[in-house]
């Protein structure tokens, strides 16, 4: 067996636990690989293709990085919380070894989380265009630029035009991402079993726009209005979609990803336990 460790290198407690985990796995004949420190090696490419398990030690941001490494490959991801929320994680540091042991033995609950396939189109100064594809577990977001101007854009679902909106942007999230940016923008909390997408305008300049849900087969298209060429940014799971210098995003197409992320947790009720703990403050009840 082989385990990939993805750790928040900025947290010494997480790093110490990762070292102990490596020793513990080595004693049991399990091969171990480490994901690169992204601060020191920002261009390094990590892969989980030959791994049986990915263990994330950090917060939800670290787990999202682990998810990007796995992509649609279906390698199980186990999160150990060293962050503030730990919404996507299965256990805390005190339960590290026993949780990894149970994961390797196949004794944890498997939660299959829908993902997103994001296709962004960018335009160069000479008018030519190119596309970039991104994986997302949580969400895709269109956001206004640093100048602070509102962005204007059209939203369509499976070829049906919904509206032209002005505001700070737009979020298209999975059920998993419904507790992140989409929630902060006023969207609903959605059970992980929901396979469609959650669409939420960000601070729309109208009282009519509301969040809405799509079916799993729908495609959400966001097209920037040429009549209001304001600065704008495209993000997948909080990371800027890679683009060429001086080019601007003109269109984004968001659909359900071709594979789910396999997230390990303690039980089928872990999602509601986290909702209660994080958003309602019901600790220990």
């Amino acid at each position: 067996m082989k385990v990939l460790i993805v750790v928040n290198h900025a947290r010494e407690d997480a790093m110490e636990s990762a070292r102990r985990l490596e020793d513990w796995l080595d004693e049991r004949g399990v091969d171990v690989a480490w994901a690169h420190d992204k601060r020191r090696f920002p261009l390094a490419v990590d892969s989980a293709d030959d791994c049986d398990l990915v263990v994330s030690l950090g917060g939800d941001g670290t787990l999202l990085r682990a998810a990007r490494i796995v992509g649609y490959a279906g390698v199980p991801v186990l999160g150990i919380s060293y962050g503030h929320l730990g919404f996507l994680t299965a256990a805390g540091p005190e339960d590290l070894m026993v949780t990894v042991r149970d994961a390797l033995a196949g004794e944890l609950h498997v939660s299959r989380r829908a993902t997103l396939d994001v296709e962004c189109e960018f335009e160069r100064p000479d008018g030519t265009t190119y596309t970039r594809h991104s994986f997302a577990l949580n969400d895709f977001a269109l956001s206004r630029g640093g100048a602070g101007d509102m962005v204007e854009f059209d939203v369509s679902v499976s070829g049906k035009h919904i509206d032209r909106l002005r505001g700070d942007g737009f979020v298209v999230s999975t059920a998993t991402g419904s507790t992140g940016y989409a929630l902060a923008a006023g969207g609903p909390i959605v059970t992980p079993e929901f396979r469609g997408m959650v669409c939420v305008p960000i601070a729309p300049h109208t009282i009519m726009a509301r969040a809405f849900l799509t079916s799993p087969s729908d495609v959400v298209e966001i097209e920037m209005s040429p009549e209001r060429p304001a600065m704008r940014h495209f993000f997948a799971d909080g990371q800027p979609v890679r683009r060429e210098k001086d080019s601007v995003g003109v269109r984004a197409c968001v659909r359900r990803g071709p594979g789910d992320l396999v997230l390990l947790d303690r039980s089928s009720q872990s999602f509601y336990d986290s909702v209660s703990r994080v958003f309602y403050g019901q600790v220990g009840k």
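The chain has a mean pLDDT of 94. Helices lie at 12-27, 60-70, 96-104, 181-184, 270-279.
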